[in-house]
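Quick start: read one record
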Amino acid sequence: MRDSWARFGNLSSLYAQAAEVGYDDYLGKSEELSRLAFADDPVRFSSLETQISIAGVKSIVFSAMCLEATINDFSGIHLGDGYTEDHIEKLDLLSKWSIVLRLASGYEFDRSREPYSLLKSLVSARNRLVHNKSKERNKGSGL
């Protein structure tokens, strides 16, 4: 194992803090919105809805970024930067966690357990946000 103290450039802590700020903001704005009726203040209501969406995006995207930075760093420490760059970095996040944990520690990431399903849900939510695509308006629905 390499000395992890000699590493630099890992932003996982920064991403974790950004995700936490986004989540706290999401909870606070959601609570405020629950006490406000649209009819009471439609401008504030709409503004809160937007702020909640932004906070949710921050929380999801930065959480995924944190987990990716963490596993990349773990891989670099335990498998070497060259191996990580050549074989790990191009993998999707779920594969990185499964493969790196197994190669570095012998730990098998159990796909039937909650941590794996939560990571899978996070990746799915992040992908929907990051790879967002517009859709044609349905002419019959009024949307």
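Residues 13-130 form one domain.
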